Automatic annotation (TrEMBL), chains A, B:
This is 3-hydroxypropanoate dehydrogenase. The lineage of its organism: Bacteria, Bacillati, Actinomycetota, Actinomycetes, Micrococcales. GO terms for molecular function: oxidoreductase activity. It comes from Xylanimonas ulmi. Residues 30-182 form the Nitroreductase domain. SUPFAM superfamilies: FMN-dependent nitroreductase-like (SSF55469). It holds the Pfam family Nitroreductase. InterPro entries: Nitroreductase (IPR029479), Nitroreductase-like (IPR000415), Nitroreductase_HadB/RutE (IPR050461).
Length: 206, 206
């Protein structure tokens, strides 16, 4: 296990982007007073939306929580250890997946008509597929937020059923992660970087 | 729904990186004859390993399948529609999660001793947590592969239990996705880009 912050071969992106998106990016704990603008979220989504999902199913949905009133509603549903983090963040995204994503498949996957009807009775499969692909999209979104100059702080809520009832009532969306977003206060305010596995610790070559 | 390939505000990365990682990146179907080198996989991992996971749990594991013999073993376990894709790709990554990730927590999360022991009996929780966080890491890995100049083609195997028995026997790892990797043959060989949701179609602001 090492803390290598350089890459072993020429990357196809410049060092600034590699540092910003991955090597120097950290889970932010302290924020500047700057607000998160609609344009910044839009910029992050303008990239993250292109990340691949199974059958272009795109099941990720999210609430952008910024108003004091909505923040207060969300705070009630966070574990004690995460309440202050949500309170401090300029914006908090509550991520959910849509188990009824199949209703959009005629638009999203137009060359294969009938997917919507075929998936309709497969309730359990749809739930798994939606959660799986929304998690992939969460990876793209976290990178996309950083590409838009924002920092992300992912964390868990205490009770996602309660979050669904409070923020996504009537939609059928199922929340699974909370991500604080803002402009990170300079280096040194985060926890020390934790170790990462080297490639040979997590792979085998066949 | 639109096909906007520009971003509404200044990004913190240059346009070349935004195009390479997201806007012009496509699920590759055709490959140049160039091999995928160890250094290229290492370069992708040198970035992707830094993406955040819950409690730094880093549960993603993968097999790098390149030899004709290993390719043949994997081919047997792919659905008919995906066999030719695996056969054509210079390398194929078989992604899995490690439900026993807790055994590494003393190293990965050293400031909170006891996590390993606390998680040991929570078999079901560990399985869910490992799969969830390995999927986040898959998002980072797909972006990391692109940053290393590679293209990725994610797809499903036919029977992941069979894949586990064939490629991950004795490890306890559970496979969940197969990703072809290589150097994409020039533009125009992919399927047409499918539509994406606009931000306001997948979010609400509170």
């Amino acid at each position: 296990m090492t803390e290598t912050l350089t890459s072993p071969t020429a990357l196809a992106i410049d060092e600034t982007a590699a540092d910003l998106l991955f090597r120097n990016a950290r889970t932010a704990m302290q924020w500047t007073p700057d607000q998160v603008t609609d344009d910044e979220i839009e910029a992050a989504w303008s990239l993250a939306k292109f990340g691949p999902t199974a059958m272009n199913s795109l099941p990720l949905r999210f609430a952008i929580v910024r108003s004091p009133e909505a923040k207060a509603r969300l705070l009630e549903l966070m574990p004690d250890g995460n309440k202050a983090k949500v309170e401090a963040a300029p914006a908090t995204l509550v991520l959910a997946y849509d188990p009824n994503f199949h209703e959009h498949m005629d638009t999203l996957f137009p060359h294969a008509p009938g997917v919507r009807e075929q998936f309709a009775p497969a309730v359990e499969m749809r739930d798994t597929m939606a959660r799986t692909n929304a998690l992939l999209q969460t990876g793209y979104l976290i990178v996309g937020l950083r590409a838009a100059g924002l920092a992300a702080g992912p964390m868990h809520a205490a009770d996602y059923d309660a979050v669904d009832a409070e923020l996504f009532a009537g939609s059928g969306f199922k929340s699974f992660l909370v991500v604080n977003v803002g402009h990170a206060e300079g280096a040194g305010t985060e926890y020390p970087r934790l170790p990462r596995f080297d490639l040979d610790e997590v792979t085998k070559t066949l």
